[in-house]
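TL;DR need structure tokens for one chain.
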Amino acid sequence: MKGSLVWRLLRRNISGWQMAGYSLASLVGLTIVLTALQFYADVRSGMDDRNQNHDYLVISKKIGLLDRTTAFSGDEIRELESQPWVEAVGKFEASRFRAAVGVEFQGHTLSTETFFESVPEKFFDHVPEGWKFDPACGEVPIILSRDYLSLYNFGFASSRGLPRLRDNEVSMIPLSVAIAGRGEMTRLKGYIAGFSSRISTIAVPESFMKWANEKYGDTSDIRGPSRLVVEVSDPGNPAVTDYMRSHDIEIAGDRQDNSETGYLLKLITGIVMAIGIIITLLAFIILTLSIYLLVQKNRRKIDTLIMLGYRPGEIAGYYYRLITAANCIIMMCSIAISLCIRPVWTVQLKAMDMTGSDISVTIIAGLAITLTVTGMNLWIIRKRIIQNK
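>> reply
TL;DR here they are.
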């Protein structure tokens, strides 16, 4: 009863319009921040699920009309490795011998000349078991670009009336690998060990490439690698694009497009979040001014209550509960609104076979921001009441 009378006395000068203005501004600002965070987390997670190779770029020099070579020199590779956004550089080693691959499948004989390349296995998205070559065994494991399987299934197989193949079925097809050079030729067994979505080539183990080039390779014109795979720490960094453009370097596929999309997404999300933070700060300023004005209006009442034996912390407790309750309600409403808005983009992500993040981002961020703002509010209230005692 006593506490109820004190609260009635203190709340008389509380402006409902000021509290409504603070609550509305805080609700809008916090909702914008949480929605932007959840949107970025969902889209970023979806992009990573769909393209797990965004940190690896396969690069080559642009081909000019009068260019005699497109190989990277040792100095160029060292310069690239020295860039702050480069984590590691892998070299494509090309075959310097003639090669052909043949296969018999359902009465059809397919044989074609081909090429091989090798890449350090750390740069593959998946290294199959048994990824090595033993000359005594004479069996060559091969990793194909997944694009090649799609070309066969939807191009060659459809036009020739051949069956379409799945990954595990292709691995069961025995291959005949013929390599020749320096007046010698040999036939080896081969098989498709796996597929890569990261590197577009016909890849063989480095041990096989070293053995075959040493035994059958042309040594009259040994050049540096014409392609490199680069692991980058931040593929969306504009410095990556600037470097590639200034050195006439091309990036294979859409890796840089995806990286630039990720960078643009980060930039747009940052701008939206900044707007939300500004609105939230303005709401905080509104509440701070309201607290100063409220304490000033209640100065005589606060002085009287202190003279009657009430402690400053006890008096401030009534305001604490008001602000804490208001901020908690604002937080819960903001989280609820953000999660209600979320299906707008998650439906589109699912249509593109992309999965979003979980909602913990929104909840944790909402709690952190609310605790910070509430803590500052309570500190200001206590400070003002102590100053006026």
